[in-house]
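Reply to dn_fold:

You asked what the input looked like. This is it:
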Amino acid sequence: MLNENLSIMKRMKFPVHGDRTIDLVYRADAFNLFNRTSFGGIVSTIGNPNFGRPTGPQVGARLITMGVRVDF
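and this is what came back:
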């Protein structure tokens, strides 16, 4: 089963006063990035007219989440 996951993060620092800073962190995560499907539920009964056919997908669709965090 092929399943690619990717995560990227960007940290930005903003000076406030003296040596103090405010950090803004942006993060994005992608699960099953290329939206590949792995079929499951294959009929294995010999003599069944649907022998060898998959009855449904096993892996869900692509999922992308994003978030922002402020550190001060």
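Residues 23 and 56 are 45 Å apart (CA to CA).
Hope that clears it up.
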